[in-house]
Amino acid sequence: MRLSQMLFVTLREDPAEAEIPSHKLLLRAGYIRRIASGVYAYLPLMWRVLQKVSQIVREEMNAAGAQECLLPQLQPSELWRESGRWDTYTKAEGIMFALVDRQEREMGLGPTHEEVITAIARDMIRSYRQLPINLYQIQTKFRDEIRPRFGLMRGREFIMKDAYSFDADEAGMKLTYQKMDQAYRNILRRSGLAFRAVEADSGAIGGSGSQEFMVLADAGEDEILYTEDGKYAANVEKATSLPPDAEPSPFKKYEKRETPGTDTIEKLCQFLRCSPTCVVKNVLYQAIYDNGMTVLVLVSIRGDQDVNEVKLQNELVKRAGNYSAKTVLSLTVPDAAAQEKWATKPLPLGYVAPNLADNYIKPAKPAPVGMQAAGRVAPKFLRLVDKTAIDLKNFVTGADEAGYHVVGANWDKEFQRPDVVDVRRAVAGDRAIHDPQQLLQTARGIEIGHIFQLGTKYSVALGATYTNEQGEEVPLVMGCYGVGVSRLAQAAVEQSHDKDGIIWPVAIAPYQAIVVIPNVSDTAQVQAAETLYQQLNQAGIETLLDDRNERAGVKFKDADLVGIPYRIVTGKSLKDGKVEIVKRATRETQELPLEKVVSTLSQWIAGEKGDGMKR
């Protein structure tokens, strides 16, 4: 392609809307253009990158035995109501674009396709002889993000590959899951990216287990905790670890003490001269379930630890049935305005005890016959205690009175033992469970892939069954596997760039080489460039020709900004029958005879692609 004939406009200054390097560079280099908040046009250079990524994904999925299809973006609400996720996606998380068509039917633009694919399987898979089946698609998805940001990283419209597998049993599903794990590793290696596969929370998708694939980058939104021995890595939302050992309590008997101005753990420990590991702090949360019921949750945890709200929400979802609900719509620390709606009197914040009296909650008004729990508050606190606090002896905790704490307290004596849960947030520096000698390290990552062991969650909900060898009708066992194609492309830029621009890995670069004519008035430079341009493309090396009537400095800056792996300059050395070749990644410069350019570049490109496969 000749730049003189291409839609090619670069910017010298960073756009005001862009916050992270990759977003700035993709806009400046003319790869994408913002159309609306979280909505971008993929311009010719970017579309070539996305095609490269899609082809790698397609090849690895096909090699793993998956079959490509294309599912509708517009989905009926009935399917989502069958799975129980319509309210979650349109009200709780609010990420689904929903609409009503002219026949008054509710529809949604698909952020994901579990319901659609399960309905297809329900209609078409009858017998165990048809299994296993793995179907995938590459297409545009939609999410109504509250705050779209970082360009293609968190957009409202994006390109994604999602796959869905159907197996006869859990063993078969796990085998398919392992194949997808390997396929994802191959995709990232072939794309030339440094990454980590980490344990992850399954979130709204659900299932028994999941794994995220993180491209390592300083601007990553996710925190990863891992060990140097390579045997453990997890998203901080999912991570587990061994906390520091608790220090022995200096208090030997139970008593109430005046502790003025000690409404934080730090102030309390300074006043009492004790370690925060001797303290049980009690954190109040307000959970709203999908039937409208509000439940007040009191979490007791060791004073030096913090609550992982993702883990807590998962625990509350498990208890949804106790409140005639299916899932949690929101989980917050109630502010003063929220407390006024249900509290009979001001709470002793900073001094709350594990047995905070239930009479702080206003009595529930009887619901009209046939009405749901909308707006009602459960009459009792749901009390939970984290594992870090359950073994403490003679601990310090609140006394339910401002300015007072109790010391020397014990479970099953002064305080009734609540349900024990694991809701602690793991942090860097903690000891690893698999080897306490290993300390957790931290890194930032960009999630570009997520694979799930769904099990029978959707097949049971939508009635997708098959007949097994014994003639029994049983639910299909499912897996789900997603890769953000457009997200991966930007993640590559975030991982690999410098002050002058993008440094594309060869495998996904829009073009592999660019031939630059420093002076288009010089006939010899133009003729040599034209010849190389033709020869390189004929040899299968995708090549741009910068034949614009611009200064050489402008062309060199643009080449660096756009990030093409190899730059060939028909400049001063042409008089010796040579051209200058610059490697974008290392800035290494080399002069080569004209007749050796094609063969040398072919070797370099093959070598880089091979390194990507081995990485």
Structure description:
With about 625 residues, the protein is α+β, with helices and mostly antiparallel strands. Helices cover about 25% and strands about 25% of the residues. It has 15 helices and 31 strands. Strands 3, 7, 8, 9, 10, 11, 12, 21 and 24 form a nine-stranded mixed β-sheet that branches. The chain has a five-stranded mixed β-sheet with strand order 16-14-15-17-20. Strand 27, helix 13 and strand 28 form a beta-alpha-beta unit. Helix 2 packs across helix 12 (about 485-495) and helix 6 packs antiparallel against helix 15. The longest helix is centred in the first third of the chain and has 21 residues, at about 170-190. The two termini are about 30 Å apart. The model has no long low-confidence stretch (mean pLDDT about 95).
Largest β-sheet summary: 9 strands, mixed
- Got a strand count? 31
Tell me the fraction of residues in β-strands, as a range: 25-35%
Backbone CA Rg: 30 Å
Question: What's the oligomerization state?
Answer: single chain
- From the N-terminal CA to the C-terminal CA, the straight-line distance is 31 Å
Overall average residue pLDDT: 93
Low-confidence stretches: none
- Structure class: alpha+beta
Give the helix tally: 15
What is the 3D form? globular
Determine the fraction of residues in helical runs and give it as a percent range. Answer: 25-40%
